[in-house]
Amino acid sequence: MSEAEKLVLAEGRKEFRSKRSIPCTDCRYCLPCPEGVGIPRILAYCNMSEMYHAPETAAKHYAFLNEERADRCTECGRCMEKCPQHIDIISRLKEAHSHLTRPSSRPSTWWCRWKDR
Ligand code: SF4
Ligand code: SF4
After folding, report:
1. pTM of the full structure
2. Is 31 in the pocket of ligand 1 (CB under 6 A)?
3. Which of 1, 38, 83, 117 is at 20 to 30 A from 99, Cα to Cα?
4. 110 lies in a domain?
């Protein structure tokens, strides 16, 4: 890859990251969660919803998480001690669950195994 191509790639990466509302890098240092919450994936779905204006798609992915969903969080705080981005994970998970389960975000496709808790 040429230097010019590397520069374009770096700029694209920077632009992409600047558009994320949650600065999660998917490093996964916060895992494993003792309750099995899929932290990075949930944060990624929130970013997907916002960046691509795709709440229904994000909610569809979230619905399939089942046992990894954000409402299993007991607020123990272990993940937050390990996050190098200092993300307020507990608050973000609460917001994520609320956002990704609200009626306007819910997928309408019949095959989606949506389950209310
Ligand atoms: S605060 Fe919640 S998400 Fe974080 S490790 Fe504890 S249970 Fe898991
Ligand atoms: S440790 Fe922080 S930045 Fe890394 S995956 Fe977990 S939430 Fe994202």
Report:
1. 0.78
2. no
3. 83
4. no
